[in-house]
């Protein structure tokens, strides 16, 4: 089961949550394309401007080591997808990771006597599987994240 209610459990602290799932997934996808996360601010768009602002890239890099959960805006994500030429599966993985990162961020804010324990990677897997089953994605193979 993805979540269980635990009476008396201490909420996970921000430092107990593993790094930003969105930044990790983006870094893995970029690596498959021969790129590093830190190179995103050096890439140029079709008009010669920076693909992403350096501060955005810095926050994503920082979130791999520290409990911060930045994600790319839809506009910036679309620019990255277009510039790098990401496959449909890679795009779905990033969409699922965006959702999981938001859940991950919210979980770090959830204090209380009863804590819902959800592993961000479980949220990612559920979101990814759901996105793959959406109409228009029926030609995708069964993929285990």
Explain what you see.
There is one protein chain. The protein has 145 residues and is mostly helical. The protein has five helices and two strands, in the order βααααβα. It has one domain. A two-stranded antiparallel ribbon has the order 1-2. The two termini are 17 Å apart.
Number of strands: 2
Q: Point out poorly predicted stretches.
A: 1-17
Query: What is the helical fraction, as a range of percent?
Result: 40-55%
Radius of gyration: 16 Å
The amount of beta strand, in percent, is 5-15%
List the helices and strands and how they pair.
Blueprint: E1 3-7, H1 21-32, H2 54-62, H3 74-84, H4 88-107, E2 114-118, H5 120-132
Antiparallel strand pairs: 1-2
Characteristics of this structure?
single chain, 145 residues, 5 helices, 45% helix, globular
Compact summary:
The chain has helices at 21-32, 54-62, 74-84, 88-107, 120-132; strands spanning 3-7, 114-118. With 145 residues, it is mainly α.
């Amino acid at each position: 089961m993805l979540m269980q209610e635990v009476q008396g459990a201490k909420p996970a602290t921000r430092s107990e949550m593993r790094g930003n799932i969105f930044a990790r997934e983006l870094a893995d996808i970029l690596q498959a394309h021969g790129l590093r996360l830190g190179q995103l601010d050096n890439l140029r768009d079709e008009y010669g401007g920076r693909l992403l602002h350096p501060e955005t890239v810095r926050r994503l890099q920082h979130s791999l080591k520290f409990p911060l959960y930045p994600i790319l805006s839809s506009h910036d994500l679309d620019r990255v997808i277009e510039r790098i030429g990401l496959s449909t599966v890679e795009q779905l993985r990033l969409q699922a990771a965006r959702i999981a990162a938001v859940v991950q961020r919210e979980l770090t804010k959830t204090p209380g006597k009863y804590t819902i324990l959800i592993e961000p990677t479980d949220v990612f897997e559920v979101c990814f599987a759901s996105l793959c089953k959406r109409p228009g994605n029926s030609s995708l193979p069964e993929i285990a994240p």
